[in-house]
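The material for today's practical consists of a large collection of protein records. A record pairs a protein's sequence with a compact description of its fold. Instead of coordinates, the fold is spelled out as a row of discrete tokens. We will come back to this pairing of sequence and fold again and again. Here is such a record, shown just as it appears in the course material.
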Amino acid sequence: MSTQDWQDWQGKHVTVAGLGVSGIPAARVLHGLGAVVTVVNDGDDERARAQAAELEAEGVTVRLGDGATLPEGTELVVTAPGWKPDKPLFAAAAEAGVEVWGDVELAWRLRGLDGREAAPWLAVTGTNGKTTTVRMLAAILEAAGLRTAAVGNIGVSLLDAVLGDEKYDVLAVELSSYQLHWAPSLRAHSAAVLNLAPDHLDWHGSMEAYAADKGRVYEGNTVACVYNAADPATEDLVREADVVEGCRAIGFTLGTPGPSQLGVVDGILVDRAFVENRQKQAQELAQVSDVDPPAPHNIANALAAAALARAFGVEPAAVREGLRAFRPDAHRIEYVEEVDGVAYVDDSKATNTHATEASLAAYDPIVWIAGGLAKGATFDELVEKSAKRLRGAVLIGADRALIAEALARHAPEVPVVDLDRTDTGAMSAAVREAARLARPGDTVLLAPACASMDMFANYNKRGEAFADAVRALAAERA
């Protein structure tokens, strides 16, 4: 089927798997193209019923509480990215010879459908740092005078970007491993894998499968495959990728860069990849101090964003201007306040051990607030690497015992407060206990290494509770 022709969609029977942030836009777009759309959804709660009513009023069929059965006559399945590959619906589709696409695949296929030249994609994936890097990249592209948007897993629909009224020169696209799994024909201009660490293994089934899905982002790249020189697994994915002839492997490093790399020299971000003589020349891009905050893992994000921008032809001055203009999202190593000489930092977004390790590496000494839902993670390696930085630890949440055990094994000298409660008020108690352990010059760091849903609706609410507790403490001691 040629998806570049409107006529191909007329009367085509498409099943959309899942309501929500991707399923609803996909259903509406497909219905607007003239397809016969049926949405299937596992849940049948009040919110799902309200969403279903809206879609049905527009002419879309919705089946709630039945996400396992493939509707009769289905010619294509478009799935929400979170639906696991082992769902019976997908087995039925495979048996019937029906393709399964994700919303990213659908957006990729629909590029240029309205006759406009399709904007190239600069794609970013990795276990941690995706959203920050994509937003940095968009800021750099904007500083270069390009019409762009940060889209994809960042929460902005790719379908809206490729079919909306706005015309873009280039898109900065965040892609999760789920989205990449369901996007077989995606071919980016250039792409980056920031890092690889165990995550979502319950969904992918193994670390190998998870890495393979991340590596899909490099398939068919035309200009640059950007990898992390400190994470050999990302370079391995570049080697395995089938790219367009002439596409280059570009590394980024926090050390002095070699040829075809971007790195750091004497507090300066430099480029030895996109210069005339990369054996002998280096181009200054920005100062480390231009990056907010200048934590090591955030410098790495900035280098990856700069590499993708340079691959697209952006001049060095725009890299600096874009990085200076960028401000991180809330709850990502966000300074809250200083109380009695102690800094309080909210990194509630650190929901896995890899992100928390990077966060802990940015401060010293630390009173660490951690805990929540471990999602199958183990904490020995994290604690062993970070033990020397810890003044103390305050543990909250359902799986706090796992962190306590790792601390006992690898940092027995670190005082630990184990808060045996999972109510939302526990955060106020955690901040007070952390304040008791901290000394002037220390940092109290919320970097939970766990998901939040045992106590909070999401990591945002957890971070807000932390910030509220810090401000209440400050008001008391003012």
Summary: The first helix runs from residue 23 to 32.
